[in-house]
């Protein structure tokens, strides 16, 4: 049976769910339940894909596990085409999973404009599904832009005190970066059309365009800028801490859990196959930016007094490590970094969820207002320590597997980078432990009435803890999923594949 | 041999306008919806006639174009008129100017627009333009009690009269230089080489006249004042309708202009386009009143269109037509919804007036916001695809520098549109605004516009194929 239509369902179900949420917004209880149930259906559909035993099939849009391809703007040569491979399968799973967490944590904290909140949350989910599946550059670009709108409103309406500044900053950074990508995209489209006489936005066809090194360099630079802002790489990261600090918890979780991954994903899925020569030349730059990001983030994180900002900077550090893996271009490091995308999505989401819980209780995110919480809230403390340890890479938990693969892979190819990255990981350990120490232990400065996590919150934390342990103990099946994606790049870009010796 | 059926839309419109006037004069105890209903019916009938009647030849006595190009613009302009009428119904009733003169002038303005867009003869063009302008002078100042409206009307009248004078002078000179009043023949080339300076001067004067009407920089200075003073639905009509009609004739002139004159003209247009985009967007940046901000945004959009006009001989005609259609819908929607969101005493204008409206009037604000989103050029609104196709056509024609200027100014424009979003959704209301409840007519218009913007933004293939067909025929 042809199940490819499932891809369409996966993209459009959240959008539909968002509309339902919008129209049931006047009954908040109903709206929450409807959003939750439809999101669970979405997640079950994606989990179903894991059990379908999909095999790569070569089609008109390339080799994919599943693909759909419909005519869209016939005059322009743009088609509505989606494709699924191992990497995108894991990422859409993560998206659906994190979205359920977002719905659960907003259950009681969002009481104003409930319908619109869930609409934006679910609409964003639909956009991200499309983003991770698109194989037509115009569809991809369209979604890349649309996803800014729900995030803009999520931060701007339900955010904290300085939310308007943060939402505008987010918008300007993202939109500015992506317009340069649009110019590059149109230039590539025109060049391809002039060479072959066929105007198309299909990724598969555009990879076969012949470009002179200079042109290729410029086009790649425009793509890289847009994706670097999203990832974010130092020095275009400055929007991230501000947006995280001001965003509501669900916004932070979505941002750290999924949105940051779109930059990395797009770099790998689009920029590398389209401009293999320039991408190869940029690898030392990526490694350098990744290292700078790790050390810079670690250094700044140590100086933070706001716990949410600290977690935000830790995201920049983690993304830096993944970019290093992309830059050394080694099979082991690459599969490690793919796994890290998922791991970071879960662990950092969990940390943001817990920071949100702290904020509810203390009405402050300053370390100076914390301390001694372990005694007052033992269950909370236990979970917080667990997720912190997962984030710093304790063996047996999820991050360890990804980080060790990246470090070993890097060390095989570029020992110096490997050593530096290892030092960077140590830095992570230092600032995360400092955070735990300042928050949970020590003496409480003043008596505050705090209450431990209740059943609803424990449920959320347990749901988050399950994949942390599972991936930590048994990462094999997921790593096997990524193999097909890595071969995909080989298939697409022989020039890059030469480096992929391991 | 031409039959009267060929100009059926014009006949229906004119007759309808006269019927409205008669109904106003002889039926003092008419039901309140009668004039509105009559004008709506007239517009619909004219639109149906324009769509359904197959012309017996390609032009009407050498005066009017009857081809697909004119048909496209006739339908578009009648659609604009129809939507404006829907926006006007309750707006004018609540504010006490829903008389026969309003509806009759709206229809006469529509006749003028159709004549301008379809003119193949300078005289018909001038006739249509004057009919349009005279109707607009009155429509802008139709709220007799209001000083701002009167000021706007007088300002538009004085400036418009001067521009008409300049244009007439240009037409006279072109007749003197070429000896014909047919647009195509007069632009095709020079009969005597000696009259070259005369010919150049004539073209320049015509450019100034048209540039004033579509508010190109530096002839745009009337725009913000007039837009601000006119009632919002009339502003919508002025901004979407009259500019599209004038642009239709502008494209006709540019395409027919023969090589030696075009070689001089395009660098000038190139420069004007860059200037219009830059000045429009940068000035809008500093506005604190929404109508003025949108006025400068419409100036900027004229710049984008002019940019594509520079490339019109290298195949940007389909992109231009698509952008014009999308522009008409989204600009009409923005001003129309602003009218629907306004208090009876005066239109909402200061940015602060919009605070919190996103929640107290979420449907109307939603459509208003969606039109703004389209003006910015963000997907899934139609503005994105329209800009994409437009910029692509310009880059393909080789005007890369101009396209880059356009894109940079478009980046600037995000900021000022988002200022309005911030007020709508992210600031609590500081004062209570007394907005009348939504009425069915303007809600229907809003719904239609939102649907059109979404449809053209996601699946514009049907319209694009029509445009491809029309421009193919027009280019011959």
Compact description:
The complex is a heterodimer of chains A (502) and B (476). By secondary structure, chain A is mainly alpha-helical.
Structure description:
Chain A has 502 residues and is mainly α. Helices cover 75% and strands 4% of the residues of chain A. Chain A starts with a helix and ends in a 5-residue tail after the last helix. The mean pLDDT of chain A is 87. Helices cover 76% and strands 1% of the residues of chain B. Chain B starts with 7 loop residues before the first helix and ends with a helix. With 476 residues, chain B is an all-alpha fold. In chain B, strands 1-2 form a two-stranded antiparallel ribbon.
Write the layout of secondary structure elements.
The complex is a heterodimer of chains A (502) and B (476).
Chain A lengths: L4 H19 L4 H23 L6 E3 L2 E3 L1 E8 L4 E7 L1 H24 L4 H20 L3 H10 L1 H11 L4 H34 L6 H4 L6 H18 L8 H8 L2 H26 L1 H6 L1 H20 L4 H22 L2 H32 L10 H4 L1 H15 L5 H16 L1 H26 L14 H19 L2 H17 L1 H4 L5
Antiparallel strand pairs in A: 1-2, 3-4
Helix pairs in contact in A: 1-2, 1-4, 2-3, 2-4, 3-4, 3-11, 3-15, 4-5, 4-6, 4-11, 5-7, 6-7, 7-9, 7-10, 9-11, 10-14, 11-14, 11-15, 13-14, 13-19, 14-15, 14-18, 14-19, 15-17, 15-18, 15-20, 15-21, 17-19, 18-19, 18-20
Chain B lengths: L7 H19 L7 H19 L6 E2 L3 E2 L2 H28 L4 H19 L3 H19 L6 H32 L4 H6 L7 H18 L8 H8 L2 H25 L2 H27 L4 H21 L6 H24 L16 H4 L1 H15 L5 H15 L3 H27 L13 H19 L2 H15 L1
Antiparallel strand pairs in B: 1-2
Helix pairs in contact in B: 1-2, 1-4, 2-3, 2-4, 3-4, 3-10, 3-13, 3-18, 4-5, 4-10, 5-6, 5-10, 6-8, 6-9, 9-12, 10-12, 10-13, 11-12, 11-17, 12-13, 12-16, 12-17, 13-15, 13-16, 13-18, 13-19, 15-17, 15-18, 16-17, 16-18
């Amino acid at each position: 049976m042809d199940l490819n239509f499932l891809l369409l369902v996966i993209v459009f179900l959240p959008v539909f769910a968002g509309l339902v949420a919008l129209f049931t917004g006047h009954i908040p209880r109903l709206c929450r339940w409807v959003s939750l149930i439809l999101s669970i259906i979405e997640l079950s559909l994606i989990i179903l894909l894991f059990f379908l035993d999909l095999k790569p099939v070569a089609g008109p849009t390339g080799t994919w596990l599943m693909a759909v391809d419909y005519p869209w703007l016939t005059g322009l040569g743009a088609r509505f085409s989606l494709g699924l491979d191992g990497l995108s399968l894991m990422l859409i799973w993560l998206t659906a999973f994190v979205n359920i967490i977002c719905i659960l944590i907003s259950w009681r904290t969002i009481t104003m404009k409930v319908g619109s909140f869930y609409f934006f949350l679910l609409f964003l989910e639909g956009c991200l599904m499309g983003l991770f599946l698109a194989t037509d550059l115009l569809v991809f670009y369209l979604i890349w832009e649309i996803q800014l709108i729900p995030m803009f409103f999520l931060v701007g309406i339900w955010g904290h005190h300085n939310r308007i500044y943060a939402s505008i900053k987010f918008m300007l950074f993202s939109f500015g970066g992506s317009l340069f990508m649009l110019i590059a995209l149109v230039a590539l489209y025109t060049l391809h059309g002039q060479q072959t006489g066929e105007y198309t936005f299909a990724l598969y066809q555009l990879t076969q365009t012949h470009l002179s090194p200079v042109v290729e360099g410029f086009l790649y630079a425009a793509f890289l800028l847009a994706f670097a802002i999203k990832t974010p790489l130092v020095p275009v990261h400055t929007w991230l801490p501000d947006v995280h600090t001001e965003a509501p918890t669900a916004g932070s979780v979505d941002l750290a859990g999924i949105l940051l991954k779109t930059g990395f994903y797009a770099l790998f899925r689009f920029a590398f196959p389209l401009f293999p020569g320039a991408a190869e030349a940029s690898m030392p730059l990526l490694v350098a930016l990744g290292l700078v990001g790790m050390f810079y983030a670690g250094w700044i994180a140590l100086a933070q007094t706001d716990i949410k900002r600290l977690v935000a900077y830790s995201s920049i550090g983690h993304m830096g490590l993944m970019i290093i893996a992309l830059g050394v271009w080694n099979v082991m490091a690459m599969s490690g970094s793919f796994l890290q995308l998922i791991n970071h999505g879960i662990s950092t989401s969990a940390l943001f969820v817990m920071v949100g819980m702290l904020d509810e209780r203390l009405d402050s995110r300053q370390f100076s207002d914390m301390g001694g919480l372990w005694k007052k809230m033992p269950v909370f403390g236990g979970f917080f320590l667990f997720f912190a340890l997962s984030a710093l890479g304790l063996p047996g938990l999820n991050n360890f597997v990804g980080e060790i693969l990246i470090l070993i892979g890097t060390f095989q190819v570029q020992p110096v980078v490997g050593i530096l990255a290892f030092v960077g990981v140590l830095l992570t350990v230092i600032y995360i432990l400092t955070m735990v120490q300042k928050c949970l232990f020590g003496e409480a400065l003043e008596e505050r009435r705090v209450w431990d996590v209740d059943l609803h919150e424990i449920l959320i934390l347990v749901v988050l803890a399950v994949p942390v342990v599972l991936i930590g103990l048994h990462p094999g099946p997921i790593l096997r999923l990524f193999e097909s994606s890595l071969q995909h790049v080989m298939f697409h870009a022989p020039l890059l594949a030469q480096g992929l010796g391991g | 041999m031409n039959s009267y059926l060929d100009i059926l839309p014009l006949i229906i419109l004119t007759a309808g306008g006269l019927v409205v006037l008669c109904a106003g004069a002889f039926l003092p105890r008419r039901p309140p919806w009668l004039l509105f209903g009559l004008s709506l019916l007239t517009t619909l009938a004219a639109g149906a006639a324009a769509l359904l009647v197959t012309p017996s030849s390609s032009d009407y006595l050498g005066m009017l174009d009857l081809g697909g190009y004119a048909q496209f613009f006739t339908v578009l302009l009648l659609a604009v008129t129809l939507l404006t009428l829907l926006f006007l119904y309750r707006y004018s009733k609540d504010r006490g100017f829903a008389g026969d003169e309003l509806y009759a002038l709206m229809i006469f303005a529509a006749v003028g627009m159709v004549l301008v867009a379809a003119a193949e003869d300078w005289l018909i063009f001038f006739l249509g333009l004057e009919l349009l302008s005279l109707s607009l002078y009155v429509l802008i100042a139709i709220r007799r009690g209001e000083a701002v409206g009167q000021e706007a009307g007088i300002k538009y009248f004085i400036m418009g009269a001067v521009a008409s004078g300049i244009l007439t002078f240009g037409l006279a000179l072109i007749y003197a230089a070429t000896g014909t009043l047919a647009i195509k023949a007069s632009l095709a080339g020079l009969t005597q080489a000696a009259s070259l300076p005369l010919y150049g001067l004539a073209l320049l004067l015509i450019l100034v006249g048209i540039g004033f009407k579509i508010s190109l920089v530096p002839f745009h200075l009337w725009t913000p004042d007039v837009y601000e003073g006119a009632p919002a639905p009339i502003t919508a009509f002025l901004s979407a309708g009259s500019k599209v009609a004038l642009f239709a004739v502008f494209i006709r002139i540019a395409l027919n202009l023969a090589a030696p004159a075009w070689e001089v003209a395009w660098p000038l247009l190139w420069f004007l386009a860059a200037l219009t985009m830059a000045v429009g967007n940068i000035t809008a940046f500093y506005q604190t009143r929404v109508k003025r901000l949108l006025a400068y945004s419409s100036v900027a959009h004229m710049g984008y269109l002019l940019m594509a006009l520079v490339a019109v001989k290298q195949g940007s005609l389909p992109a231009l037509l698509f952008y014009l259609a999308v522009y008409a819908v989204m600009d009409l929607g923005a001003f129309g919804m602003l009218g629907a969101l306004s208090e009876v005493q005066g239109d909402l204008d200061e940015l602060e007036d919009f605070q919190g409206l996103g929640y107290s009037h979420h449907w109307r604000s939603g459509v208003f916001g969606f039109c703004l989103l389209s003006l910015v050029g963000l997907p899934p609104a139609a503005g994105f695809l329209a800009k994409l196709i437009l910029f692509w056509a310009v880059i393909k024609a080789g005007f890369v520098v101009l396209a880059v200027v356009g894109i940079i100014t478009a980046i600037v424009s995000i900021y000022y549109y988002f200022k309005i979003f911030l007020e709508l959704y992210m600031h609590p209301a500081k004062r209570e605004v007394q907005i009348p409840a939504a009425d069915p007519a303007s809600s229907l218009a809003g719904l239609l516009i939102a649907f059109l913007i979404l449809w053209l933004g996601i699946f514009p293939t049907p319209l694009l194929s029509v445009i491809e067909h029309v421009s193919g025929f027009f280019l011959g």
